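Q: I'm writing up a methods section and want to include an example of the input and output format. Could you take the sequence below and give the corresponding predicted structure tokens, formatted cleanly so I can copy it straight into the document?
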Amino acid sequence: MKTSKRNRVILTIVNIIVGLLIISPLLYALSLSFMSQGEISQYPPKLFPSHFNLDNYKEALSAVPLFRFIINSFIVSIFVTIGQVITSSLAAYAFVFYDFKYKKLLFLLVLSTMMIPAETTIISNFLTVSSWGWTDSLHVLIVPFLTSAMGIFLIRQFYLTIPKELLEAAKIDGCTNLKFLMNILLPISKPAIASLSIYTFIGTWNQYLWPLLTINNGNNRTVQIGISMLQFAEGSNYGVVLAGAILILIPSILVFIIGQKSLVAGMTAGSVKG
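A: Here is the clean output for your methods example:
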């Protein structure tokens, strides 16, 4: 008993140390964002500012329209997340509860798209959306990402843990496939849906290459492009750049903190069946 308690204490201490090592660069960046340029340039470097001031944050917000870029990223991330939850849930339902010819082959084809690097298709995708006149608009950042093989796989694995007898019992009571999906299946799939939502939101929020390629209109740029613009405009003022980076990190960190339990639960929910 004493050995088990001592092991838990040691494990907790190790976890705290490792956690501090992981987040130490972020904490140092936060500290630097409150320093003046003179303090940042001091040697030996200071770990903490002599006094906290918001000048770097004010300058970051005045140098580029970060708030506008944050709103754009929110719109894109929310719509992509909703789209992927809908399409992944419907596709996973078909792969689990419907029997049709070549179902396994089709699912393998869907999974095979995960092995194709996004960089290999980005030029063809850009030429396609350019021919449609979608460049410089927010829907060019939304529509191409409304479904994903990862989302289908994640939701399917969760659906496999649900006995098909539940569907049969629901149909005996007169429940249609749509009602079963909406009223029974989705409510009990909240861990997997929350996991997919967090994964998709953060991934979309952090997109850089595709928005850089497709958006030239300043009003429709996203936060990652905004940071690169800030770095170009204030390249020698690291405090301003770090202040901007901290501002755009806050939403994704909050989303992760709020949903981390659901993320872990959703990732492990479908691990018992293949």
